[in-house]
Amino acid sequence: MHFDTLALQATHQPDPATGAVIPPIYLSTTFARNEAYDLSGPYLYSRANNPNREALEKALAALDGGAVAMAFGSGQAAAMTLFQALRPGDHVVIAADAYYGTPALLEQVFHPWGLTYTKVDMTDLADVRRAIHENTRVVWTETPSNPMLRITDLQAVADLAHSVGAICVCDNTWATPVLQQPLSLGCDVVMHSTTKYLSGHSDVLGGALVFRQDDELAQRVRLLQSLSGAVPAPFDCWLVMRGIKTLAVRIRAQTETAGQVARFLQTHPQVEAVHYPGLESHPSFVLASRQMQSPGAMLSVQIKGGAPEALLFAGRLTLFARATSLGGVESLIEHRASVEGPNTATPVNLLRVSIGLEYAQDLIADLAQALDSLA
Ligand SMILES: *Cc1c(COP(=O)(O)O)cnc(C)c1O
């Protein structure tokens, strides 16, 4: 089945009670028992299970080809719960350019609690190999990476992780299951911030973990999710379900525009560099072409000059919202160095762009006028 069909099939779960094609939102926190004290279904209390969450989890597992999925209240709650399933003394290897919140969890929450971790350049397999030890339990990848769009060879890193019995996790938020299927490349767990492309409209926070097997780790994560209550609200689950229905068509249109924008930027005299895995100039163009269905709708651009020029350029755009986050239908632009503060490794002249569903030539004209104004 093509992914387009799969996404619709996976989210098509009519309400068994009424036949409603789009199931209602079950706001009830609790589920009643009959005279014999039996529950009428698998639901008892919404922290443990809820019909909308269960429907979303089934869909998420299907999209990534996993055995089982768990939905969380945010991407960070998903990452947090996976680390909580480890034990003090365990070691994590993480991409140095992972989403800033993931190493922040390790540093500020789990290091005091007894986890150790090593940051590596995931594109350098020798560096990954050096960092992996006997007590390494998790190798955490994210590809394409933020904000330099570096590409990790998932199959190779998963093989290295497995050589010591560790699991390989892929934060697949940027690629989405439309563009990249980490479980089929050897990864064991996929993590998503569903806040981004899966919901797609910048109006809901959510996260997910998808497991290749319903193994001991998956069951421990399920237990922690239920005990800690790091769960999404029923309405949020319903919104993510709705987003998934249009995911493939959104990604396709946004990717098409991103390619045109990247090629335009690359030729402009005020541009120093464009980072986009769909450009042949990208250092991992070949790997990206092999590993991803298409290069996606995220790119970053370095403006000639420094932070003042980059900020001036961003300030003169009229069609791009100057905001953090990504994956919505409206184009966003962000100066990452401002967000990350003085110790950032991100070049100060870099802007990260999330391409939305606007017409490509309108976005290009807007970028052109803002760039031309710098000359
Ligand atoms: C946004 C994001 C996260 C965190 O997700 P939240 O839903 O904001 O908690 C993690 N990883 C990546 C790649 C992200 O873009």
Q: Give the CA-based shape.
A: globular
- Determine the number of helices (DSSP H or I, runs of at least 4 residues): 14
CATH class of the largest domain reads Alpha Beta
Overall structural class, as computed from helix and strand content, comes to alpha/beta
For the biggest sheet, the summary is: 7 strands, mixed
Strands ordered across the widest β-sheet: 1-7-6-5-4-2-3
Protein name: Cystathionine gamma-synthase
Keywords: Pyridoxal phosphate
GO molecular function: cystathionine gamma-lyase activity; cystathionine gamma-synthase activity; pyridoxal phosphate binding
Family: Belongs to the trans-sulfuration enzymes family.
In words, what does this structure look like?
With 375 residues, the chain is an alpha/beta fold. It folds into 2 domains: 243 residues, 3-Layer(aba) Sandwich (Aspartate Aminotransferase, domain 2), CATH 3.40.640.10; 125 residues, Aspartate Aminotransferase, domain 1 (Alpha-Beta Complex). Helix content is 38%, strand content 15%. It contains 14 helices and 12 strands. The strands form 2 sheets. It has a 7-stranded mixed sheet, with helices on both faces. Strands 8-9-12-11-10 form a 5-stranded mixed sheet. The longest helix is centred in the last third of the chain and has 21 residues. The protein is globular, with a radius of gyration of 21 Å. The N and C termini lie far apart (51 Å). The mean pLDDT is 97. The structure holds pyridoxal-5'-phosphate. The site of pyridoxal-5'-phosphate has 15 residues, from α3.
